[in-house]
Amino acid sequence: MPEIEEFDLADDEIRSVEVSPCDIGELIKDSESQVRMGLCGKSIKEAATQECPIKGSEHGSHLVSVFNPANYPSPWPLIPFSAPTPKLEKRIPFHLLPQKLVVHDPWNLLSVNLMRRKDKDGMEWTSKDDVVRIYRLQLSATGTKTVEKEKKLQAELVAKCQDIGQREGIIYVPSDKTSTSPAIMAFPPLRPPPPESVPEAHLYLSPAHQVGVGNHSVAYNAEWELPRSMLVKEKLCQDCMKDQIAEDLKQQKKCGKYHYVGVKKKAKVQDGSESVLREASPSTATFDPKSAKVTITDGQLPGVSAKFIPARAFESKKIDGNDRRGEDKKGPEVHAISPRTYKGPIVKVFPEVDWQNPERGPYCPHIQESMGCEKVPLTAKVSAVAKLSKRYDDHLGREANNYQSFPAHLFEHRKDSNVIPPLHDDPVPGGAVVPQFYGYYVPEENEGDKYLSPILLLENCGVPIVVEALDEYDKHHCTSLLLRMHEAGWTHGDCEFNL
Fold this sequence. Notes:
Elements lengths: L5 H4 L1 H4 L9 H13 L63 E5 L27 E6 L3 H22 L5 E6 L9 E4 L13 E5 L5 E4 L3 E11 L7 E2 L1 H18 L9 E7 L2 E6 L4 E5 L4 E5 L6 E7 L1 H4 L30 E4 L5 E2 L8 H7 L7 E11 L5 H11 L8 E5 L9 E3 L6 E7 L11 E4 L13 H16 L12
Parallel strand pairs: 1-5, 3-13, 4-14
Antiparallel strand pairs: 1-2, 2-19, 3-4, 5-7, 6-7, 7-16, 8-15, 9-10, 10-11, 11-12, 12-13, 16-20, 17-18, 19-20
């Protein structure tokens, strides 16, 4: 391939593009739906939900916030490991790693006594009384600096979002090309900023889910329970917004404030990948055919991005005073812009609707109807790997420090192919080199002479590979990951080659 310059010819196809993991929020909602239908999960009886004393906790036996058992709708909370949990693969910013980890460890796995029985008798969660311990997040100096940088960037982003010129809008255009009705430019309320920190999470350990034993540590596939809002995006109900737009327009007409501005096309030129409409007035419109978005700019609203949506999705509500809710079940559809353009009057409205977050109250009736439930749990469980250190081995702490110092690209999956010297035979996929890092936690208090291991939380990357089952290409792929780590300035220190 290098001889015929095929890599050069295929540059556009193999250039580096980051691939995002599957949306964990959608996986969580699918899992909740299966539990509600009774396909999986066992509910903890009401008597079993009473909180046991938590050693070392400033709250004693009282669990606060979203983890309070009173906040769970039926059939939640579930018996740990009684339902499949989606794997968490997305990166969590260091400043959002939970500060406190409530560890549920009925089998006392935190003592890392590997001499225990290896059969699975008595490993059902309900066969043991729960043992709960409190752990605290411990970051390295590098991790602490990263938190400071993240908070600074977050503050800048929040400030930017407050600028009306950065707000995203939606244009409802007339369905009939001959219509003289104005298009509606709606500016939804700003999405609430994310939390500055996450105070608490829970971790569940079971010997039935041990996934490996190494020279320095033992690993378990654990259930990690986090605030649901940390993983599931807030929603802005389109039905609520259309209802409010109709109400706002009705009030504008009633008060005599129904004014709009015209958009007049002067000339059309090609500017890179975008078609730009030059206006005789101060207003301009920029169209991006790939993303089906339009940017409307004028003296009052600079830099506002918007989507074209057919007016029927809006008009089928209460625009004429009659309720036509049944005419539009699917909601708005985004028009393909190219080569479509809109020339005509625009009315701007700013509907006051709430972003839907169950922590601030129930979902609106529209979302409840689409989900088939009135209430969702305020927490969600995901799968992560908990590495525990063998007794009095300090290797795990050094490993945690390394994860906090790795460059970002080692955690990223990319849609590209790599040729890593000295391997020149074939390009290999540009997957992540290391698993995602989800925090290093240490016991809040020592228990005398009793050993309690620290906990390193990492992404669950699946089952270990079987070396004997690898072909030559697979071995080259694995080797390329190690070589990429070396190129980033890191050495593994515990590997051998057998190509």
